[in-house]
Amino acid sequence: MLRRFLRYFVPLVIVVAAVVWTVYRADSEARLAELERAEEKYVALAAESLAHDFRAVIADLLLLADASSLRRALETDPPGDVADAAGEFQNVAQRKQVYDQIRFLDLEGDEIIRVNFDGRQASIVPAEDLQSKVDRYYFHETMKLDPGTVFVSPFDLNVEDGRIEEPYKPTVRFATPVMGPDGRRRGILVLNYLGTSMLRRFARLDVDSIGQAMLVNARGYWLYAGDKTMEWAFMFPERRDVRFADRHPAAWQAALDGDSGQVRSDDGLFTFETVKPLGHATADDQPSRLVSLAPASPGYTWHVISRVSPDLLSAHLLGVRSKALALSGLLLIATAGGSWALARYSLARERSERALRESEARFRQMADSIAEVFWLSTPDRRTLRYVSPAFADIWGRPAESLDAAAALWEESILASDRAAYETALRSVGTVDEFSSEYRIRRSDGEVRWIWDHGFAVRDAGGRISGYAGIAEDVTPLKEAQEKALQSERLAAIGEAMAGLAHESRNALQRSQACLEMLQSRVATQPEAVKLLARIRAAVEDLHHLHERVRCYAAPIQLRRDDCDLRLVWDRACRDALACAGERPVRIQPHPATGPPPCTRCYADPHAVGQVFRNVLENALDPELDTSPARDAVEVNVGWNVTTWRHEPALMITISDNGPGLDPALRERIFEPFFTTKARGTGLGMAISRRIVEAHGGSISASNGHARGLTVEIVLPKGAV
Amino acid sequence: MSRSLRILIADDELDVREYFNELLADLGHEVVGSAATGSELLRECRSRQPDLIITDVRMPDGDGLTAVKQYTAERFVPVILVTAFMDQEILQEACDAQVFAYLVKPIGRPQLESAVAIAWQRFEQFESLRREAANLRQALSDRKLIERAKGILMKQAQLDEEAAFRRLQKLAREENKKLAQIAEMIITAHRAFDAE
Questions:
Q1: Using 50, 70 and 90 to split pLDDT, how confident is the model at B9?
Q2: pTM exceeding 0.95
Q3: Interface of B with A in 165-194 (CB under 8 A)
Q4: What is the reported pLDDT for A284?
Q5: pLDDT per position as a tens digit, A200-215
Q6: Positions of E strands within A266-401
Q7: A586 SS3 class
Q8: Between chain A and chain B, how many beta carbons pairs sit less than 8 Å apart?
Q9: Nearest one of A185, A172, A187, A192 to A110, comparing CA atoms
Q10: Pick from A131, A565, A662, B77: most CB atoms within 10 A?
Q11: Which of B13, B85, B108 lies at the smallest CB-CB distance from A516?
Q12: Dihedrals phi, psi of B20, to nearest 5 degrees
């Protein structure tokens, strides 16, 4: 059972594993693609957001530089009341919340207006706290610019008093020259753009992304990495080597090679987009030199990168994997169950097949061994599908093929019985059962009675698909039937005879009566008396005959007893000798070859005595002896214990030295009224056979070894 | 055959009846009647009172066996059956009916002669035995009475057994009565006295 189970289970498991693997792969690919799309979307969005931020800042800067409040203040030189302008600046800072400082510096680099934003509140710095920024690079750079041109500083950490301000304040300074109403240069406007909020927004955009959002500058340093220790490394001499470009060189190379894309490596999934927040016309990546909107200005190039680390990637696919795992588990169970069921089914099938084979073998064995012909045929019975080997025995000739058998079958039916056969066949095809009885002539000329009996075989639809049947040689049965019929007829005759014999007694009585009366009347006439005596003798003979017939016809009622048949024989011999003529008779036993057998038998001594007397009377009857050479009648009797029909029996062999009998007549001596004697009823041997057969024995006649007739009587010993 | 018998014959065949008539007369018997049917047989028997009946079994109007069975119950006479039928059933019936002989037809003079002689002989023996048995029964009952009377005398008259018996004999002689009668009287008298 286990082997059978494994035979189904193992290949099924392989198939299931392959399917699950394929599904898993497809699923994870889909998940991955989904992820990739999410990352791409994020990166694009982030890039767009950055660019948008920068554009907004520049718009703010240019608007403020051209603000009417500032222009009014610049109507005079030095500027007049700048309170309005400062108020507007404060207003903008408060509203926008992204500007750390908004300042107006005059041509000397002194702060004229300064608004600080501390993260919550924007405030105007009083005049006494204003500083000079004349030494700052952004002042000098901006002063060189044409009006309408914007200076954008590199994106770095704010430095106050020569030290990097903590917490880090990533800042971009946007500056532009400010012109007076008269068109003269009056100073510059500086916006300290707080990168923190930009970066915060940048990080917040990754709604669908599971990757780590990063912003990398053109030199490969992280501006944003989600990990503070890696950001802004270029600002710190000791961390100069903490670069994205060094950590993920392959991804970095891909980011440098294309504007956007995705790369998967051992480091994870990288999705990148190159952002040029100040437009596309910049090729140089010298940030400090970058001047926006100036075609010749150096480039300002960032890379928005999302990294999905291998761990994260696999964690993301964990769902798929666990789904696949659950699926495999389920399928495994199902497969195991299925295999088990299959194994059970195949075992049951194999068993039923074996049973079928065995039953077929048994059927063959039976069909081959039964004496009857077993046959299978088409629904019209004309074509045989199978015929058992007994066919050759009954038909006396084997058939080479089924068609030959069918042909031989029909040919051999006697012409006189063909009509009956055809009649039986006419109903075939519609009836459930048919039978026919007919005679066939075998190839050796022998005639046999066949009883042919067929049963309809129906298919699943109930239609007759053929017939199965048995053809039996019923010749012995027929003979027995005929014999039974004959003996029935005989019994009827016997009964009639018994009745006749009874009735004749009355008639005989009347003749007897009349004869006697007549005799007394004619007592004086000797001639008449003689005639009367002859009539009387004839009447007596008639009476005797009637009595014998009655005796033969009447049912035999045996009074069996344990008796010694040798004694019965001896008495019969004495009786017979008393009736014998003048010829000498010698009755002697056969020469004994061993110890005398036990001659006791459970039999009716009177009936058996009658049999012995009948046999002896025939042997001693001088009428039967035509041979004058015989001077003495010799009768030999032999006693043997034998077996008759599996029972111990006594065989008595009585032979004489008479003329014997012609073989054709030998069997007939047991027929009633058959006699070779001029006088005799012809019932003696018939009665003898009836008596012996009533004992369950047999009696037969044969010509002896020498001459004469030998009668052999076998009587079962019975319960002795 | 010492004695002539009054015989009644029954057979449905006239030939047979005539034959029996002639034969029996020849044998010295008197045929007092003949019947051809069972009912006739019974009627003839009652009117003729025969010494012996010879009858067939199967006759029209009832069979002979039934008729003789009925008649022998009224008056015991020997019966000889003469019939063409021989079977166990009839034989058994014949035995039950105390038939004296059963002859199977055809029969002749010797069979009938011997059967009549034997049957009559047996019947006479039977009758004498019956009488003897009756006498013995009477003697036995007399003896019982005498013994009881003797016992009463011995007790009442203080006699020994012999004296008591002699007294009884004496009384019988004097009264000219049988010993048993005297004994009965004594027993009756004793019962009269003893009843108190």
A1: very high
A2: no
A3: none
A4: 39
A5: 777 777 666 778 888 8
A6: 268-275, 291-292, 302-308, 373-377, 384-387
A7: strand
A8: 46
A9: A187
A10: A565
A11: B108
A12: -60, -40
